[in-house]
Amino acid sequence: MTFYLHCFFLAAFETWSHSGEYVQETREMVQMAPKKWRGRNATTVQELNPKTLASGLDDYPRASHPSKEEYHLDLRCWMALGSRVMDRLAHLYGDDKSKSKYTEEASALANFDDLVQLHWSENKKLLLKRVKLGIALQDVTYLLFTYPYHIHFVTKQKQNLYKGFFDYGLHSDKVKLVKKPVKGAPGQYVVERSVVNKPRLGFVEDVFGYNSLFPLMLRLIPHESEQLGHILDKLADPELLWTKYGLRSLSRTSPYYAARNTEHDPPYWRGYIWVNANYMVLSALKHYGSLSGSYQLKAQNIFSALKENLVSNMAKEFNRTGYIWENYDDKTGQGRGSHPFNGWSSLVLMVMSDNMDI
User: Is 186 domain-assigned?
Assistant: First the structure.
């Protein structure tokens, strides 16, 4: 078996090496070049948020207006993982040139300072929203005054809401699907997107979900960094991703949460619980929980609670229905989508056995 595995990885390394040279023709561009998924429809008026099918997170919200300026967090993280794999294979099967090339690339894509510069937001502009009066003064961090005559109370909770890792692009923070009458056809209508607020270039900060967790999931965050502590805090927040059944795919605070993408296209990666992403988060939590430091205990506690929630709910649903499901409802825990779904949802067995290395 070992011999056949060596043969497979040797052949794979040679193939992937040629593919990598084709995709990244100039190595100098690897280090800070933003990464962008292709294939988003910039001209559609039917979709609330144009899909990114190439990412595998089909309808997960990205910048509302696809443009050449946008770039995507999860793709950069996947490339960091891919380069790490290629570096390992190069040291097993490659020549000195290959070893040097892939070590340099892996180091560049794993550079945390670059990741923060490209994708971390400390922006407080989205906090300029009216907050109901009656907030206790001790909870108010500061006041903001904006035209015309608005006073905004910024609480500590809201101050942290839009800090995190995000995509970047041309984005409107308010779009909606509306019915429009068809000319010359009384009683008939089409459903199209209406852009209420003008899109602006910036981080897609009203979308916190699985995508924002990729630096955590792929272990790209240093274990003593402030960013790790912040992401762990957000993980355990029930208003965001935490449920008693597992981590939902999109925060309840996002305007895209549970939103249809078209008249006939229900939400998919907009709130439901997916086992593959929960597995990757658990794997990361186990990793960070093994490292001595400020966030070790917090990572361990979240790991234990998340594992219990995910496994117990899947077991309950299996006993109730006899199936492993594609995903699970974040409000009820009930299985939904395709079934039986014994692909990545069977990762629950790896979770139960504590075998969560990536």
Answer: no
